[in-house]
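Postdoc handover notes: sequence design on the structure in folder B. Input C-alpha cells:
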C-alpha cells in the first residue's frame, strides 16, 4: 500500500497540503483513537531532526490522545476526500465513532494509526509539547482574531520517523 521514503523525497507543498488541502492528525491505539482535521502546522528541521509541528486546541478529544501517545500521524488526502475531511473536522470523537462515519480505512501497521486513503503519511514521535502563551503573541490582533475564548492551542512537535507515500 505505502512505500517508505525519506522525508526529503516528499512531493508535496506544505503550504498547500496543510493550509489549503488540510491534513488529519491521528493519535491513540486500539479502541481509544481519534483523528481531527487540521489546517495549521508545519514541516521543517529542528534540533537536527526532520520534524512536523501541529496545533491542537485544549478542548479537542484528539488532544487527550496526543498527550497520552508517544507517536502520532499526519495523513494527507487528495481533494476527492474533502467531504470526509470536513466531517472529521466538525464532529467530536467523544460523541460518536466519527472515523466509522467518515468511511475512511484505518491503517494500524505503523507506530500510530493513519489512513489507507492518504497519498502521504508522516509517522511522528512526539518530542515537544507546550501551550501557546498569550503574552508571547506579539500582535494583539492575532489574539483577538484567533482566541476570543482564550483557548490557546497546544503545540506538538514530532520527529518524522517514517514518511510514507503511494
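Designed sequence:
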Amino acid at each position: 500500500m505505502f512505500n517508505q521514503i525519506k522525508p526529503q523525497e516528499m512531493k508535496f507543498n506544505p503550504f498547500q497540503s496543510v493550509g489549503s488541502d488540510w491534513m488529519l492528525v491521528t493519535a491513540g491505539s486500539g479502541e481509544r483513537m481519534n483523528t481531527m482535521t487540521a489546517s495549521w502546522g508545519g514541516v521543517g528541521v529542528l534540533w537536527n531532526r526532520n520534524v512536523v509541528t501541529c496545533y491542537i486546541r485544549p478542548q479537542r478529544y484528539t488532544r487527550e490522545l496526543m498527550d497520552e501517545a508517544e507517536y502520532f500521524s499526519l495523513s494527507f488526502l487528495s481533494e476527492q476526500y474533502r467531504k470526509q475531511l470536513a466531517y472529521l473536522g466538525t464532529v467530536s470523537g467523544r460523541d460518536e465513532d466519527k472515523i466509522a462515519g467518515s468511511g475512511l480505512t484505518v491503517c494500524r501497521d505503523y507506530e500510530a494509526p493513519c489512513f489507507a486513503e492518504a497519498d502521504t503519511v508522516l509517522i511522528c514521535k512526539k518530542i515537544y509539547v507546550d501551550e501557546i502563551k498569550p503574552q508571547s503573541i506579539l500582535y494583539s490582533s492575532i489574539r483577538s482574531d484567533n482566541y476570543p475564548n482564550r483557548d490557546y492551542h497546544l503545540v506538538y512537535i514530532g520527529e518524522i520517523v517514517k514518511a510514507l507515500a503511494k
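Context for whoever picks this up: Residues 3-165 form a domain with the Pnp Oxidase; Chain A fold (CATH 2.30.110.10). Don't rerun without checking with the PI first.
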